[in-house]
Design brief:
Layout (H helix, E strand, L loop, with lengths): L5 H18 L2 H37 L5 H32 L4 H5 L22 H18 L2 H39 L3 H34 L3 H18 L2 H14 L4 H14 L2 H17 L6 H14 L9 H12 L5 H12 L2 H22 L3 H10 L1
Helix pairs in contact: 1-6, 2-5, 2-6, 2-13, 3-7, 3-10, 3-11, 3-12, 3-15, 7-8, 7-11, 7-15, 8-9, 8-15, 9-10, 9-15, 10-15, 11-13, 11-14, 11-15, 12-13, 13-14
Amino acid sequence: MKKLGLLPKIILAIVIGVLIGSVFPEWVIKGFATFSGIFGNFLGFAIPLIIIGFIAPGIGELGKGAGKLLGATTAVAYASTIIAGVIAYYVSTILFPNILKVGQLADNFDNPEEALTSAYFTVDMPPIMGVMTALLLAFTIGLGAAVIKGETLQKGMIDFRDIVEKMISAIIIPLLPFHILSVFANLTYGGQVKMILSVFVKVFVIIIALHLLYLIFQYTVAGQISRKNPFRLIKNMVPAYFTAIGTQSSAATIPVTVRQTKKNKVNEKITDFVIPLCATIHLSGSTITLVCCSMAVMMLNGMETSFSILFPFILMLGITMVAAPGVPGGAVMAAIGLLETMLGFDQTLLSLMIALYLAQDSFGTATNVTGDGAIAIIIDKLNPSKNKKKQQHLAS
């Protein structure tokens, strides 16, 4: 089991959970519900720590470096992420009502929670602060450290981030498959899982299609700006795409992304700066996934999905993605607080979101890193020092 990647573990957990929920008696399901409840409460406790641990040092680190180049890269990456989220919203609004029944979960039961088996006992784990308080505190500390150039504070925040990363990699991520197994066992016992799984497949197809179309859009824009063939640019980035599918990590794919971006004739210094930065701040593929999965879960539960509700979520998601750790499932971990406070997701809906997201995490990561190459092309063209360097190179 340890040798399996996270995606196979999630798929196996869903299958085993469905089997357990189909054949085991209620007292067994109660045991799984107890574990799921305890883990969900721990996740709620960890959310403010994750927000502060990643956003504060992330913003602090962005405050240092290459001045205008840093600002331009951050602006282009953020714009790309927001555009991806808005496109995902409108595609979901148009297509999802045709492939799923709006309010289907709410229609099946007067109160969907009543269909789920209750736990034997619960363990309260109240968070140290609310999610919005944690966000505001993280922004304040991060921006403050960048402005005053507080090296001591920044080092302390980085140490805290390492602690939170260890908590995610050593506790949360290893236990997630068991949590998802428990949730699906309960959902199956309550008679809801067949409908949910049928929705999963349809939503996955749309998400992956959106990923590919958005990559074409990104490289079309980059190709227009650089006057290069966008499909040749994409062809050169294919190794980075498949490396990301295998590793499920933007950070682990950086060497391949750098190499392939340089094959697209991007300035070496621009590539070496932009690609590692965008591996942290540019998550257009993850944003598409999060928005589409959120819309599907909300529609199934009869929740309002107006643009006025989702657009602020998308704007905040673009900022929060800066905090996403470079580990499998990192983006959804960073977004849990927003799902809870801005969209009103409870623990059951959060569990569904985590399962939905992790089941296709590798494709979202592949879209993220491949899109980083397009950002590098755009920044290379906009870089004012490029022409001078090019002339010096020709002269030599």
